[in-house]
Structure formats: structure tokens, C-alpha cells
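Throughout this chapter, every protein is written as a compact record of paired, labelled lines. An example of such a record is reproduced below:
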Amino acid sequence: MVTAAVSLLIVSACEHDFYETGDSGLSYLHTDFVEARTNTLSAFVSASTDDGIQLTLQPALKEKWATKGDTTYRALLYYNKVENGVTEPVAIRPVAVLPLRLALNTPVVHNDPVGFESAWMSKNGSYLNLGLILKTGKKEGKQPVQSVAVVCDSIKLQPSGGRMFYLRLHHHQNGVPEYYSSRVFASIPLAGFKKPDSITLDINTYKGKIRKYFAY
């Protein structure tokens, strides 16, 4: 099973908090989920938003977490005013990509709780996005790493002709201390989905189990 180790996502989330109210310069920042492209030097040079807007990033933005050149990353981009498709990037945060895996092929599906904030389908239909709160902290010795993933329990054909995908969030706390909370974002790729497919997603939260429904 492909899982996303979230230590990097948590560190990045703690380093940047650009939201401000009022008339400060930061209050006018744009924020979008994007597919961002790096150049040969691993610096971000372009991005495509979930609304289908193509952006050229000038100057190119270098981030420590993006280590591969000529690569497309799923990310949350903070940027200034756009003029003729060109914008000045301020920061970019990684977003975990969680490809679907069959539960039958997964030895253990962990059901450790998370904090749930939001879930929505991107405007272009490419991703199902999640806003989660993970409990984290440091311990002496080797630091464990928690992970998240999404498994598919079953697929059922509906009277409409569409398919209903029954999904479940896997979360393995893996002994990470739960001292404080950190917001992370994750995106589930929806390649291969089509109308009138639909999705049921089960998430175990600290407040109990919840179920979210989405029509493609």
C-alpha cells in the first residue's frame, strides 16, 4: 500500500502561516491548490490551479522539500497579483497525494483517529481534497513517523449506470506523541472516474466516525 509519511507536511505547515486580515500586504495573497512544475534546478517555475488557470512563477521559487527537477508536485501555492499569466510566488506547501489502493491487497488498514476539517472535489474533477488535523509531537530517541492513505473497500454498480466507490481513510499514528495539532492537506487522484460515478468516504475522527458523499 502506498502511504504518505506526514512529517514533512507537518514541518512545512508549521513554517508558513500567511493568512492575515485587514489591509496588510499578506491579506491580499492568493491561495490555490495547484500542480506545480520544477525546472532542472528543482525550483518551481509554473503552476496549474484546480480552476484551470496557468501561472508562470517569477522569480522561480526554491523550497527545501522539493528535491526533484523537472517534476510536477501537488501543492498549496501562495502568490501575489497575476498579470498576463505571470505572478510572484510567496511560498508553496506540499500536499500529500493518496492514490487509491484495494483494501484486499492491504495487510493492515489502521484506523487511528484524525481531526477532520473539510473535504471537497476540485473544480476540474482531478482530485478529492481533504483538510485534516493530525496530532503530533517529539519523543526521545528515534522519531517515529505517522502515515495516511486511502483504501477502497468495494465498488458497486448503481441503477444509474455509475459506480459507487466505498473508500476509507487509513491513518497510522505509529507511536507519534499527540502533544499538539497540525493542519495537513491531502489529495486523492480521481483519474478514471467519470459521470455518474460517486464516492463514499469513511473517516475515523476524534469525535467519532463520519461519512462523506461526493458525486462526480
